[in-house]
Fold this sequence. Notes:
Distance between the termini: 31 Å
Low-confidence stretches: none
Order of helices and strands: HHHH
Largest sheet: none
Amino acid sequence: MPSDADDAFFERADAHIKLSNDQLSEVTLGKVSASTLYGASRFNAWVVASGFGSGSEMEQGKPEALKYFVDEYTKMLEENIDDYIANFDEYMKPPH
C-alpha cells in the first residue's frame, strides 16, 4: 500500500477487483487481467499527462514517470503474491 494512501484506498481497490471478478463470468482470467492492466495504464498515462503543460514536457518526464509506476506496481505485486503465499490454503480453498 502506498504511504500516501487514504482511508478509502482499499474501498476503491476493492471496487476495481469486484468489476474484474464480475467480468470473469464472460471471459477468461487472462482477458480480464489484460484489460485491467490496460485500463490502469491508460488512466495512469492521463494522470502523468495532467502534470504537464505540453507533450514535449511530458516526453522529458516520461522516464521518471515510467520508473515510478513500474516500481510501485512491482512493490504492490510482490506484497500481494507474498500474502497469497502465506495464506494460500485460506484464499484458494473452494467455497462451501
